[in-house]
């Protein structure tokens, strides 16, 4: 028997799992069959499914689904790292969010994942010099998801934004890989300066709910920012900061706080 070339689904374990979970979801709840087929099973690859999902979410009377789909298809054809980062984000969410039980969920239902992928599309447009389209994507993400990420900001992969309500990331902010943040986090400036004015978040950082990190400061890798803190100064790597204004209150407690999601502060 001639050897058959593996399909895209077989070569992409994330996509393979999403498709399997989609079929199981339809069996469990036939009423969502049409939506699952349109969003997942109708497509031949993860890239196609993600482009379709974003086009359906971002479309408005001002910008049709077809135009956004064409933009997303062009972006994913031009830069494979966009969808590679999306796959890493799905795995991160599944690993860190106890409410995520399937790879299918972020793509279909989680606004944190969808907002970050839309940001990635806007960032690609920004780098292409298509600034007004990038601003349109930013606007739609803010309107739809309550997440405001400037398209010029730089964000790594393996990102988990839990609940993703009232997230703000400024123009010159940089977020590393494998970062976790909860709702109402702000990575903002401190005034009207028009230069490098936003935080730089290292790899593996955990930022608690409601935390505000302000100014051109660095939060070192694998550190923790406690919920409700206001960070105005640099944070060394692998430390925990808390308070208003935030102060170092101890070590990070583990090597990868963004993955363990442990927000308990040992006061002993």
UniProtKB/TrEMBL annotation:
Pathway, per record: Amino-acid biosynthesis; L-cysteine biosynthesis; L-cysteine from L-serine: step 1/2
E.C. number: 2.3.1.30
Keyword Amino-acid biosynthesis recorded: yes
GO cellular component: cytoplasm
Domain Serine acetyltransferase N-terminal: residue ranges: 14-118
Family annotation (Pfam families): Hexapep, SATase_N
GO molecular function, one term: serine O-acetyltransferase activity
Catalytic activities: L-serine + acetyl-CoA = O-acetyl-L-serine + CoA
Transmembrane segment boundaries: none
Source species, domain of life: Bacteria
InterPro entries: Hexapep (IPR001451), Hexapep_transf_CS (IPR018357), LbH_SAT (IPR045304), Ser_AcTrfase_N (IPR010493), Ser_AcTrfase_N_sf (IPR042122), Ser_O-AcTrfase (IPR005881), Serine_acetyltransferase (IPR053376), Trimer_LpxA-like_sf (IPR011004)
Keyword field: Acyltransferase, Amino-acid biosynthesis, Repeat, Transferase
A GO BP annotation: cysteine biosynthetic process from serine
Family: Belongs to the transferase hexapeptide repeat family.
Protein name: Serine acetyltransferase
């Amino acid at each position: 028997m001639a050897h058959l070339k593996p399909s895209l689904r077989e070569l992409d374990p994330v996509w393979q799992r999403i498709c399997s979970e989609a079929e199981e979801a339809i069996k469990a709840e036939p009423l969502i069959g049409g939506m699952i087929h349109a969003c997942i099973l109708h497509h031949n690859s993860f890239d196609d499914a993600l482009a379709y999902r974003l086009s359906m979410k971002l479309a408005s009377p001002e910008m049709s689904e077809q135009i956004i789909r064409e933009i997303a298809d062009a972006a994913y054809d031009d830069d494979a790292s966009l969808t590679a980062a999306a796959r890493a984000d799905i795995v991160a969410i599944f690993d860190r969010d106890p409410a995520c039980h399937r790879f299918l969920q972020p793509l279909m239902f989680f606004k944190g994942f969808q907002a970050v992928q839309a940001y990635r599309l806007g960032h690609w447009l920004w780098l292409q010099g298509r600034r007004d389209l990038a601003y349109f994507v930013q606007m739609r993400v803010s309107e739809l998801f309550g997440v405001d990420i400037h398209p010029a900001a730089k964000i790594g992969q393996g990102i988990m934004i839990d609940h993703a309500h009232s997230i703000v990331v400024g123009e010159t902010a940089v977020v590393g890989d494998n970062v976790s943040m909860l709702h109402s986090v702000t990575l903002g400036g401190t005034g009207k300066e028009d230069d490098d004015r936003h935080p730089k978040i290292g790899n593996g950082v955990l930022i608690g709910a409601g935390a505000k990190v302000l100014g051109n400061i660095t939060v070192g890798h694998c550190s923790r920012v406690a919920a409700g803190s206001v960070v105005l100064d640099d944070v060394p790597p692998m430390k925990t900061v808390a308070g208003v204004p935030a102060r170092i209150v101890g070590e990070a407690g583990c090597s990868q706080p963004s993955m363990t999601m442990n927000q308990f502060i040992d006061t002993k």
